[in-house]
Design a protein that fits this description.
Helices cover about 35% and strands about 25% of the residues. It has three helices and four strands.
Length: about 140
Amino acid sequence: MKKIIVIGLGIIFCAILAILIATPVVNDNVAKKTAKELSDLQLPQNTEHIETVSKAGKLDGNGNGMQYFGAILIKSELPLNELEDYYLSKIQCEVRKQTTSEIAIIQHRDLAFKTEINGDNFYIVYSWVTNSGLFHELDIRGRY
């Protein structure tokens, strides 16, 4: 009888440990998928894909809750309004001019492009995803 209890407690402990280890991995993959959807889109003419970034955690606003952010850095000869029209016709996202490597949209965590930004023809195309479920609730990065 004691063996069964010990084995049962061991299984419960291992299950909890597996969930705690898997939680950030699953949430990071949601953010990476968000960025991948953007980077997989066909680029408009006269536009070059420079870099892709993603982040999961409490990134913006007040309160608790996981947020998933994906973005691409592009260099384009097109004006902002044409880029907005192009990307918004394909996916729900935002397009903004990017003047520094820092991603200012993220308030609660540091996130930056590795690329040094020189010139006024760099743009960030980004998307936020909200997800719910077990992994969403268990990730301590969603607390602020």
